[in-house]
Amino acid sequence: MKSNKKELEFCTTCPKLCRFACPVANAEYKESVTPWGKVGMLYYLSKDFVPHTTENYELMYHCTGCLACRQFCEHQISVPDLLISGRTLAYEHTRHDKNLEKGLRNIKKYGSVYGTDLNKKMRSEFESVYFSGSLKVKIFAGCVYSEKQMETVKKAVFILGRLGIDYAGIYSEKEFCCGYPLYASGFEKEFTSYISKVRSNLSGTKKIIALCPSCAYTLRGLYQQYDKGIRADILTFSEFILPFIRMVSRNKKKITEHYSYHDPCFMSRYLNQTEEPRELITRTGGILSEFLWNRENSVCCGGGAMFRSTNKTVSLDIAYKRIEEFRATGSKAIVTACPTCTKMFRDSDPDAPVRDIIDIIYDFLSQ
Ligand code: SF4
Ligand code: SF4
Predict the structure, then answer these.
(1) Tell me, what's the pLDDT at 228?
(2) What is the average pLDDT score of the chain?
(3) For ligand 1, is residue 18 a contact (CB within 6 Å)?
(4) Which backbone phi and psi does 208 adopt, to 5 degrees?
(5) What is the pLDDT of residues 274-292, one digit of tens each?
(6) Does the pLDDT value for residue 1 go beyond 70?
(7) Residue 305 Cβ < 6 Å to ligand 2
(8) For 224-235, what is each residue's pLDDT tens digit?
(9) Which ligand is nearest to the CA of 65?
């Protein structure tokens, strides 16, 4: 475990200033799963004050990685990074959550947490020209979009074509995943060795358009922290297409509709991107009715940091609470920019109207 003695001590002695912001504590109604309770347990484990039991390590998995706690932390502590280091410790003591092993096996075998060869799937969906090594701009679709929402990936490719961007290919290799699930599961050594392969696959690429914000953050931030970093500009889809949409939207018919934009944690708190997707929506004619908790204070969908794999019921409860907040806005649909959020909302309430920002741009450009 990395040395983070100071942070552990701060949390352990804190009067729980961030307690109210934790979606897990708010859904489980237990003090032990507040940021204070979880980090406190990690502190006691690191000092050998408590036995290294599976039960004690289990608290490390009650976190969606949403980073909402940091918004209200005087010391700007990243609780998810601390708890993920606790998961690494749990793995070293063979006290980790066994549900996560399947993902590890799948990544080793298929390059993705899903038991699907996504490289093969992606190459069967698009013409071979998209995979040419000479293309220096690449769409990084990510596992969730490619496994669960391939139609959205196709729409993203259509959008780039419609905007005249004919120089972008698609990243698709045996190591399909960005590696974030390995990091979030606490498989630190496996993560470090895996990302060096992805980095090597991406050598020569000048620009990466990451459809999924957690891939964007991982490629941008975690690679730098754990490997050498990638020598390419890494942009989210919203960030990349905004200048193009600004140009075409001036003379294009708008689609007037009321939406509420749900800020995915990786967009708002990890990448500081709250205005780009909002501007995209309004440029297409969309009218925004905000969630009560929005932008950097947005509430998580419940699906981050492998929380759905380790605590499925609570994760869906968290998503449902966010849908209730959406219903109070009176708008027609939730728009988000992350495939995990979309899936969490749809699974938690199949009647919830949920759209991806890519759907909104696709409708606007294809009319
Ligand atoms: S993250 Fe900050 S506010 Fe929250 S318990 Fe730790 S020290 Fe306190
Ligand atoms: S990152 Fe989110 S889920 Fe994890 S402790 Fe902080 S507020 Fe709770």
Answers:
(1) 86
(2) 97
(3) yes
(4) -120, 130
(5) 999 999 999 999 999 999 9
(6) no
(7) no
(8) 999 889 999 999
(9) 2
Backbone angles phi, psi at 62, to 5 degrees: -95, 60
By CB atoms closer than 10 A (0-12, 13-18, 19+), residue 205 is buried
pLDDT at residue number 340: 98
Write down the pTM of the prediction.
0.96
CATH architecture, range 240-366 = 3-Layer(aba) Sandwich (3.40)
Q: What is the predicted pLDDT for the residue at 3?
A: 65
Which is the closest atom of ligand 1 to the Cα of 14? 8
- CATH architecture of the domain 104-237 equals 3-Layer(aba) Sandwich (3.40)
For residue 155, the model assigns a pLDDT of 98
Mean local confidence (pLDDT), 18-23: 97
* Cβ of 60 below 6 Å from ligand 2: no
| Closest C-alpha to ligand 2, atom 5 | 35
pLDDT of residue 295 exceeding 90: yes
Query: CATH 3.40.50 residue ranges in the chain?
Result: 104-237, 240-366
Ligand 1 within 6 A of CB of 14: yes
Is the beta carbon of 63 within 6 A of some atom in ligand 1? Answer: no
